[in-house]
Specification:
alpha/beta, Isoleucyl-tRNA Synthetase, Domain 1, 6-stranded parallel beta sheet, 17 helices, elongated, binds 5'-O-[(L-methionyl)-sulphamoyl]adenosine
Length: about 525
């Protein structure tokens, strides 16, 4: 059986991961956990892109050996992903020998079939972006804009990939939607870019004397592989493509093509939509063997890009310490709109956590379990009633589950959370109308009290299971309080009304989402 295969862009470990990197990993982790929950075998691959000039420059600036810097920073990424409950199945490091062997095997294959050639070229070169520039890269004033950093004029021999041979194929494949790019508006962006970007061949080497931190070309060892050509291959090298005998890697046929390659908008064109697809096509992959690209927007700060020079980089590690992993995961999933940019705002993180988790869901859970304990001896009653309010609550849950599933299938985690919150609101309203705390004063009404509380406890069980891909820790705590930790193993198809059987004993209530208190004011 082919696994559902999810990858993310691999990060440059030339600094610390910021909130944008963390969002991408959390999104991939959430979707991985969700697809597993639907019963699919799922494999999540991510890691770090360790070669290239950026690493060399940072190492020089810090006065350390580039290999030492790479190892040290890579450890920081691994530690943080673990802390944020991001659990990949496979971990990429492009300095890994298994990856190097695969890149070299691909290069030899492409060279042997005439897809690569060597030529001399004189032109402008962006040191920051590590690429040659053409007149098309100039701005309206005819200059190379600041995004290119230092631009120098150089003449040198290099190896080129005949990218242009694949331009017609690529255009047809994207037009026909054989190569899937989500959301839809990003596909239009790619179509607009193909004519511009795919008619020039791609320089895939750098002379070793200028750049030694890369994978040597097997047929011309004075050159190393251009960082993008090397990095893009991670999605197949670590999936077992052309693996050397005995290498501890998956079976390629069980994974490829990737069901989702999650990337930010900045690396869609030309890297993923043009270079990567044409590289795969040159290797012999057909249109139906291309990965689906899921493109997300950027997290900005008050409309500005996060950057070292603006000093506005948000550190996810510090936020996790300050507010907890669940609060951070919740906010990042809740406040991003499909494929669009969002502004990171700590006060919104606190507000959304305090209202939607602490007040709404937290109170619902706490009231349900507390009152079940106090009024019903912690015992669940029958949830098969024909009271109109009960039927409406059941209907609301089934609508939430459907909307959640359809949103998650489209990778719209924020919409899935809104669906969950609708049912939380419904349950809180139900409790307010039923008032079990009033009813319990009349002994004759005690059976009804038990029914009402069993309906909200049942709802809490479903909500925790639905939330589990997004907030694994909180879901586990909720299920433990319901005395049903084993519900964590259920799949979405098991979610039928009546999970909590009559007579079941619930556990001890304990706040799962303590309010975040802000100095001098409570949000
Ligand atoms: N190393 C390349 C990717 C190679 S993939 C074969 C790279 N690395 S990166 O560290 O610059 O970016 C890693 C990922 O983080 C990319 O998908 C990028 O779009 C994403 N983000 C970088 N800044 C971001 C935000 N401010 N917001 C959201 N995602 C952002 O590109």
């Amino acid at each position: 059986m082919k696994s559902f295969y999810i990858t993310t862009a691999i990060d440059y470990p030339n600094g610390k991961p910021h909130i944008g990197h963390a969002f991408e990993k959390i999104l991939a982790d959430v979707l991985t956990r969700y697809h597993r929950f639907t019963g699919k075998k799922t494999y999540f691959l991510t890691g770090v892109d360790q070669h290239g000039q950026k690493m060399v420059k940072t190492a020089e600036a810090e006065g350390v050996n580039v290999a030492t810097l790479t190892k040290r920073n890579t450890k920081g990424f691994i530690r943080l992903w673990d802390k944020l409950d991001v659990r990949p199945d496979g971990w990429v490091e492009t300095t890994d020998d298994r990856h190097k062997a695969c890149v070299q095997a691909i290069l030899s294959h492409l060279e042997a079939k005439g897809a690569l050639y060597k030529k001399s070229y004189a032109g402008f070169y962006s040191v920051r972006q590590e690429q040659f520039l053409t007149d098309r890269d100039r701005d309206e004033q005819g200059d190379f804009g600041s995004e290119w950093g230092e631009v120098i004029e150089i003449e040198e021999e290099n190896w080129y990939f005949r990218l242009s041979d694949h331009a017609d194929w690529l255009k047809k494949a994207v037009e026909a939607n054989d190569i899937k790019i989500l959301p839809e508006f990003r596909r239009t962006e790619v179509l607009n870019a193909i004519d511009r970007a795919a008619d020039t061949d791609l320089c895939i080497s750098r002379p070793k004397e200028r750049m030694s931190w890369g994978i040597p070309l097997p047929f011309d060892p004075d050159f190393v592989t251009y960082v993008w050509f090397d990095a893009l291959i991670n999605y197949i090298s670590f999936a077992g493509y052309r693996k050397t005998e005995g290498a501890d890697l998956p079976e390629f046929d069980t994974l490829w093509p990737a069901d989702l390659q999650i990337i930010g908008k900045d690396i869609l064109v030309p890297a993923h939509a043009i270079y990567w697809t044409c590289m795969l096509h040159a290797m012999g992959f057909e249109s139906h063997e291309m990965p689906t690209l899921l493109v997300h927007g950027f997290w900005n700060i008050k409309g500005d890009k996060m950057s070292k020079s603006l000093g506005n980089i948000v550190d996810p590690d510090q936020l996790a310490d300050q507010f907890g992993v669940d609060a951070l995961r919740y906010y990042l999933c809740r406040d991003i709109r499909a494929g669009k940019d969002s502004d990171f705002d700590t006060s919104r993180l606190i507000m959304l956590y305090n209202t939607e988790l602490a007040n709404d869901l937290g109170n619902l859970l706490n009231r349900s379990i507390n009152m079940t304990k106090g009024f019903c001896n912690s015992t669940i009653a029958s949830t098969e009633t024909d009271n109109e309010e009960d039927l409406a609550l059941k209907k609301s849950l089934s609508q939430t589950t459907q909307e959640y599933q359809s949103a998650m299938n489209q990778c719209e985690v924020s919409e899935a959370l809104k669906a969950i919150n609708q049912h939380v609101t419904h349950c809180n309203g139900y409790l307010e109308r039923q008032k079990p705390w009033e009813m319990k004063k009349d002994e004759a009404l005690l059976p009804r009290v038990a029914e009402v509380l069993s309906h909200t406890a049942e709802s809490c069980a479903h909500l925790a299971i639905l939330l589990r891909p997004i907030l694994p820790e909180a879901a586990e705590k909720i299920l433990a309080q319901l005395n049903k930790p084993e519900f964590g193993q259920l799949s979405i198809d098991d979610l039928k009304w009546g999970l909590l059987e009559q007579g079941h004993q619930t556990g001890k209530p304990k706040p799962v989402f303590p309010r975040i208190l802000v100095e001098n004011q409570e949000s």
